[in-house]
From TrEMBL:
CDD domains for the chain: AfaD-like
Organism: Yersinia ruckeri
InterPro entries linked: Adhesion_dom_sf (IPR008966), AfaD (IPR008394), Dr_adhesin_sf (IPR037028)
Alphabetic keyword roster: Signal
ATP-binding listed as a keyword: no
Protein name, UniProt field: Fimbrial structural subunit
Length: 134
């Protein structure tokens, strides 16, 4: 169950989720809040909103902040956050971000979570999505 008496979608009600990461190398000192990707979620059925999250390790107490580990060297780390205006961190359930909006499409951003020094590597971010059903 999700907060406020809403339930997450069943498998047949899974929304379409697309994530487009920016091209180019990201290494050295990186300023926080820099957008490195954008996601788009779509669902055409009746719903009350969307939820997006990752099963990656959390970065701190925020449910929408994650630590990505390097593919070539797992000691290499990149801290990212998923967010967008009007989306709210899921503090109650601890899973990503929630948008209370019944429209067909919404977007969100993947941003650098704070200033950090990033070692060149391959970092993967897998996201999950659900709709909030009435």
């Amino acid at each position: 169950m999700c907060g406020a008496g809403l339930s997450l979608a069943q498998a047949a009600d899974t929304p379409q989720l697309n994530l487009q990461m920016n091209n180019g190398l990201l290494s050295g000192h990186v300023n926080g809040e820099r957008r490195i990707g954008q996601g788009r979620i779509q669902y055409y059925g009746n719903h009350l909103g969307f939820q997006v999250w990752s099963d990656a390790n959390k970065s701190g107490a925020q449910p929408n902040s994650y630590v990505l580990l390097g593919k070539n060297n797992s000691s290499n780390k990149l801290r990212v956050r998923i967010e967008k205006k009007d989306w709210q961190p899921d503090h109650e359930g601890g899973k990503g971000i929630i948008l209370h909006y019944g429209g067909e499409t919404a977007t969100f951003d993947v941003v650098i979570d704070g200033d950090q020094t990033v070692v060149a590597d391959h970092y993967s971010l897998a996201l999950n999505a659900a709709v909030l059903l009435p």
